[in-house]
Amino acid sequence: MTDAADRLIRDVQERFGPKAALTDRAALEPWLTDWRGRFRGEARAILSPASTEEVAAMVHLAGRLGVPLVPQGGNTSMVGGATPPADGSALLFSLRRMNRLRAIDADANLAVAEAGVILADLHDRAAAVGRRFPLTLGARGSCTIGGLVSTNAGGTQVLRFGTMRALVAGLEVVLPDGAVHNGLSGLKKDNRGYSIDQLLIGAEGTLGIVTAAALRLVPAVQRRAVAWAGVADPGAALKLLRHMEERTDRVEGFELISGDGLALAVDHIPGIRSPLNGRHAWHVLIEATSATADFDPVPMVQDLLGDAIEAGLVEDATVAASEAQAAALWRIRDSLSEAERAEGPSTAHDISVPVADMPRFLIEAKAAVEAAFPGTVASAFGHLGDGNLHFHVRAGRQAREGWTAREGPGIERFVDDLVTQAGGSISAEHGIGQMKRAELARLAPPGDLAALCAIKAALDPRGIMNPGKLVG
Amino acid sequence: MTDAADRLIRDVQERFGPKAALTDRAALEPWLTDWRGRFRGEARAILSPASTEEVAAMVHLAGRLGVPLVPQGGNTSMVGGATPPADGSALLFSLRRMNRLRAIDADANLAVAEAGVILADLHDRAAAVGRRFPLTLGARGSCTIGGLVSTNAGGTQVLRFGTMRALVAGLEVVLPDGAVHNGLSGLKKDNRGYSIDQLLIGAEGTLGIVTAAALRLVPAVQRRAVAWAGVADPGAALKLLRHMEERTDRVEGFELISGDGLALAVDHIPGIRSPLNGRHAWHVLIEATSATADFDPVPMVQDLLGDAIEAGLVEDATVAASEAQAAALWRIRDSLSEAERAEGPSTAHDISVPVADMPRFLIEAKAAVEAAFPGTVASAFGHLGDGNLHFHVRAGRQAREGWTAREGPGIERFVDDLVTQAGGSISAEHGIGQMKRAELARLAPPGDLAALCAIKAALDPRGIMNPGKLVG
C-alpha cells in the first residue's frame, strides 16, 4: 500500500505539477480532522486536481494502483464523512481548486458550478444576475457544492425548495473506473435508464467524485417577512404551519425552537434576547418571501398570525419591522448550537419522522430519553415542516468529565431505536459518514442494506472511493 | 425453462389461488401485444398478485426457479416496455389486482396508491378531498401508477410540477431477491445512503417491482385560463414562455404545435377547427391555473398575451371564454397523434435537448431530415418549456406500402444522431423499453452504459426482471 500510494503521489506530481499532490505536513494537518474535532485520520498527501480531466486521470490511476481516495470539499461534515481512515491507507482528494462557476444563465434559471465552489459565493453570483440559489445552511461560508450534492444537503429553506436532490438539474461525475459521466446539459426530461445523477446525490463520495453540478436557480427575494411566534406545543406549531400553507405558498422557512433552547441562547450568547415578552414553551421562526417588489409579505404574515392568535394556535407573535430585526431573529436560530455547547456536553441526533407524527414523537421521545438517562435534558429545534429536527440530549449540570464518550453511544442507540420504531430516519440531512455507519448496519432493513452494498460493490469493485463511509 | 415456468405457475396457483396465475389463452392474448401493435411476445401465464406479500413470494420463487417476469400495468408503453420476449421464456406479471388507494391525506398532501391504481382514478380520488395529483397524459384512463413510476412519466403539466421523479415521496418495491423495500412513510428528508426510490423511478421494471407509491398532491385547481397563440417560429414561442414566466408562476401547460400539425387535425378529426382566423407557422397552447377561487387567471393571461402581441412575440391569440372552449383547445392538442396516423405512416421520436437550444434544433433537424429522406415531412409538437418535443417524420403522400419497416430504422438512427450531437436525450419521457435498446447501446457514453449494466447485474444477478428491456 505504501509503495502504491507513493507511486500515485509521484505520478500525479509528474503529470500535473507539484500543486496537484501536496505532502507538506502543515498543509495536510487541517484536513486530517473534522471541524468539530471528533474524528481524526491520517493521509500522506492531498491530491488536488484542477480540472475534470485531472480528476479522471487521478481516479483511474488510483484504481489501477488500488489506492483509496477520500473526497473533500469544505470539510464541514457532521458525521466524519470527509475524514480519512486512521491507518493512513488513503489519500485525501480535495476539490477546492475546482472552484469555477462555469456558467450562470438567468433566463434558463441554471448555474453550472464546479465542486469546489463555496455556497456563499454561489449565493452572491446568483444575486448578481437577479436570481437566487435557495438552499442555505450554517456552514455556507465554507461548505462546497460537491459536498452539498454528495450529502444531499438540506438546511432552512427545504420547506419550499427541497433538498439538493430537488435543486440538481444534472451532474458531472468521475466514476470509480475513471469514466466521466456528463449530465450537465440540464435536460429537464431524460429517461435513458437509471439516473446516475440521482444515485450520486447523497452517495457521500462512495460511488465516484462529483466534479460539477448544474443547479436550479429561483427568482431573487425582493421582500421578506420574518416573524417569531410563541406556541404551547409542537402540535400547535404544526397546526400553525398548515394554517399558513392553506392561505399562501410563500412560507419558505418554519423553524421550531424549544423554550429551553431559546433560554440557553439568551444566557450564553451576547446580544441575544427573547423576541417576546412572555414565556412560551415552544417558539417558531417563520419566513415568507416575495419575488416581486410590489407584494409585501409583512402585512400578509401579520394577518395570518393575527388569525392564528384568534384561533388559539398562537400565544403571542411579532413580525420584524426592519431587515435588522429580521436578521436578529435568524441570529437566534443560528446560535442555538453554539449556546448548547456553551452549556455543556450534549449528543446531537439529526432525525426525521413523518411530519404529522413529529409533535407526538417529540413529546414521547423527550420523556423516554430523560427517564432512561436520568439527569439529561432532551431538547429539539429545526425544520418542523420537513419532519426533521435536531434532537439533542444535554448532559445536565451534574455531568462529569468524559460524559460524551461514556454516555453518547448508549443515548445514540436509544434515540435511533425510537426513530426507527416511528418509521423515521436516523439521518435526515447529515448523512451516514463514519459516525452512523454501525447504526445504519444495525437498523437498516436487511434487504435495503444488501441493495446498497450491491450497488457499492458494482460501481466501486476495488473499494477506492471514500473507504469506511456509508457502506464502504 | 419450460419445467421451471410450469412449476412456478403451479406453485403460485397452489399458494395463492387460481386467480393468481392465469393461463387461459383468451385472458392472456390482449397482454401479449403492446397497444400500438408494434411488439408481440409470448408467455404461458400472467401472474397476478393481490398484495405486496404475494408479490414478494412470487418474485422470490421466480428467482429461485430462474423464471423471468415482465411487470405490466396498463400496457400503454410507447417502447414495448411491457411486452414479453417472443420466445415465451418469461411470464407476465400484472399489478392490476393491486389497485387500492391505501391512504389519502389532504393535510399532508400525500396519497399512497398501489401500483395498479389507474391514473384517472387517482385524479378523481384526489379531487374528492380538494386536492390534485398534477401529472396527466393521454393514457390517463388506462395507465397505472406502477407504470408511471417505472417510466418516470411526464405529460403535459411537467413545466410546473415536474415528472414522476418530483412527485414520488416514497416507494414500496419488491427487489429482485424478493426483499421488500418500504419507503412509503413519505419522509421529506432521509439521507441513509443511495436512494433506492430514485433508482427504481424510471428503471422500467428491470430492478424490481414497484408495488405502491406515496405521491405528492397539490391544491385543486379552482380556476383556469386556457389560451391559444399563433407565433412565427419556435424561438418566438420560447420567448413568449419566458415573457410569461417572468410575470407569473401560474403557467403550468405550454405546448408547441406546428402549423401543419394543426392543419392535419382540422383535416382529419371531426369537429376540430382552427382557433385563430389567420394562418400561423406555429401555435402555442397555454394553460394557467389558480388554486384559489378569488383569483381569476383569465384577465391575467389576456393581459400577458396583449403585452406579448405589442412586443411582437405573438401574431394573434385567443383566450377560452368558457370551460367548453378550454376543453376544445386541449382536444386539438390531444388529437394531433390521431390526425397524423390518419394522414399516413410516420416515425415518432420522443426527444429532448436543452430548452434554450430547442428552437434552433427544431429548424435545423427538420431541414436535415427532409434533405436526407426526400419526400418526408418532419413536424413537431409537445412540451417546449421542458425542452421535450415529439418530433415526427411523415412518409409523404407518395410513400409505398411497408415504408415504416423500410425507412423507420434509418430515420430513427438519423434523428437520434442529431439529438445526441445536440447534447440531448433519445428518450425524454417514453423510456427505452425494447424499442430503443439498441440505440441506447449505440449512443450512450460507454462509461454511463457500463454503470447501468453494473447496477443491473448487481441488483438482478439472475436476470429475472423484465428481460430484454433497457440494459437487461
Automatic annotation (TrEMBL), chains A, B:
Domain FAD-binding PCMH-type: start-end pairs: 39-220
Gene Ontology molecular-function annotations: catalytic activity; FAD binding
Chain segments annotated as coiled-coil in the UniProt record: none
Cofactor: FAD
Classification via SUPFAM superfamilies: FAD-binding/transporter-associated domain-like, FAD-linked oxidases, C-terminal domain
Protein family per UniProt: Belongs to the FAD-binding oxidoreductase/transferase type 4 family.
Name of the protein: FAD-binding oxidoreductase
Organism: Sphingomonas sabuli
